[in-house]
Write a structure and sequence with these properties.
The complex is a heterodimer of chains A (256) and B (176). With 256 residues, chain A is mostly helical. Chain A is built from seven helices and two strands, in the order ββααααααα. Chain A has a two-stranded antiparallel ribbon. In chain B, 88% of the residues lie in helices and 0% in strands. The radius of gyration of chain B is 67 Å and the shape is rod-shaped. Classes of the chains: A mainly alpha (256), B mainly alpha (176). At the A-B interface, β2, α1, α2, α3 and α4 of A face α2 of B.
């Protein structure tokens, strides 16, 4: 058992040399593999839930699927106040589902794709583009640019900063929470492994040597801490990300 | 524990812990839109369709129930109308019958009264006739009596005819 503790980035399984400048080589990383897995899980779940749909006398599975759809519809409609943003519903739902499943997939020992800043950065940039597009659509290009000089022209640099801070803060908030979960989970496993090695090392002879190699104390306690760091944090961050997305876009659609 | 290791990577085959990889970034965005499309196609479209269908079914049921109720209401009105007219007709028949009976009774009574009046008139005429007859008889009787009495009084034989004439004059003077 190693006494060193380290948290490393996602593994790189394969590298495709593209030779394109700036973008660099295409790495097939753990992030990508697991995110594909997440997509397969979500899509499979959707197909499974919507099998054998009926109008009357519905199955529990269909009731659950309908509940999910209603939740998605209500989430977007309640936070935007109307049916104006119904086109956003599948996007927000996809964002939420991907985020939640990505966060929770760490429970089965895989590395969350959300523990890679590139993932959240991608999402945040998409959301940022949507916010900006909505603003331009609402106020026109002139109105959008003029919005930076409010309330007074001196504020322009700060307004630009705060505009740019939106995607950065969204991405870093989500990433930071998930990464902290990964780090803390790693720390707890590492500490418990050390503790059980030290504890069972006290037993003399072969039995002690054998038992001290098994992190027996790792069973149990991480499940309890995992309730917060994996379950709560994972669901909460997905919810916050989607909530902010909807709120920002709804705000952007108001004349300002 | 080496803090340095926490922040950085070491092994060859891992990427840095906090970094932005352009290709992963691009792939994530593409994945997000693929996922959006898949969720839309496999979850939202079928479920929204089925919800819409159920809504239509419910609307249809409610509409049909309302129509049935309206029909029942109109039938009820119709029945009430016909019942009312039946009542009126019955009342009319009864009153007609009463009127007819009344008029028949009136006619009968009138006829009876007329008959009675006729009988009475005839009886009165009979009585008058009888009276006249009696008076005439009495006149005759009185005449002969008077003649006898006069004959005896005057002791004078008078011609029967002159006598009678004299008596008739007397009686007429008396009767007038």
């Amino acid at each position: 058992m190693s006494n060193d503790f380290s948290v490393v980035g996602p593994k790189i399984y394969y590298t495709i040399h593209t030779g394109i400048p700036i973008l660099g080589d295409f790495n097939i990383t753990e992030t990508l593999i697991v995110s594909w897995l997440v997509m397969i899980i979500i899509t499979g779940l959707c197909i499974f839930l919507t099998r054998d749909l009926r109008i009357e006398n519905i199955s529990k599975r269909q009731a659950f699927a309908e509940m999910l759809v209603e939740m998605g519809n209500n989430f977007v409609r309640n936070n935007t106040g109307g049916n104006k943003f119904d086109k956003l519903i599948p996007f927000v739902s996809a964002l939420f589902a991907t985020s939640v499943i990505s966060n929770l997939i760490s429970l089965v020992g895989l590395r969350s794709p959300t523990a890679d800043l590139s993932t959240e950065a991608g999402w945040a940039v998409v959301v940022f583009i949507m916010i900006t597009a909505t603003k331009i659509k609402t106020n026109g290009v002139g109105g959008y640019l003029k919005g930076f000089t409010t309330p007074i022209a001196v504020m322009t640099p700060f307004n630009i900063l705060s505009e740019l801070a939106t995607p950065v803060s969204m991405a870093c908030r989500h990433f930071g929470n998930i990464l902290s979960g990964v780090v803390i989970d790693g720390l707890i496993y590492w500490a418990l492994g050390l503790a059980s090695a030290a504890l069972f090392g006290l037993i003399p002879g072969v039995v002690g040597n054998f038992l001290s190699n098994i992190p027996i104390l790792s069973v149990g306690i991480p499940a309890i801490t995992g309730v917060y760091f994996d379950w709560f944090s994972g669901c909460m961050q997905a919810f916050i990300f989607c909530m902010l997305t909807v709120m920002y876009i709804a705000n952007a659609a108001e004349e300002g | 524990m080496q803090l340095q290791a926490l922040m950085m990577l070491s092994a060859e085959n891992t990427q840095e812990l906090v970094t932005l990889v352009p290709w992963t970034f691009i792939a994530t965005i593409i994945n997000l839109f693929i996922q959006m499309f898949l969720i839309k196609k496999f979850l939202f479209k079928p479920i929204n369709d089925i919800l819409e269908k159920r809504k239509n079914l419910a609307d249809k049921t409610i509409r049909e129930a309302r129509e049935a109720k309206e029909e029942a209401d109109s039938l009820k009105d119709q029945y009430e109308d016909s019942l009312t007219s039946a009542h009126a007709e019955a009342a009319k028949i009864v009153s007609d019958a009463q009127k007819e009976a009344q008029s028949k009774a009136d006619a009968l009574v009138k006829e009876a009264q007329e008959e009675a009046a006729g009988i009475k008139a005839r009886a009165a005429a009979d009585i008058e006739q009888e009276r006249k007859k009696a008076v005439n008889e009495a006149k005759d009787e009185i005449g002969s009596l008077a003649m006898d009495i006069a004959g005896k009084v005057v002791e004078k034989e008078i011609n029967e005819a002159d006598h009678k004439k004299l008596i008739d004059e007397f009686i007429n003077q008396v009767g007038a």
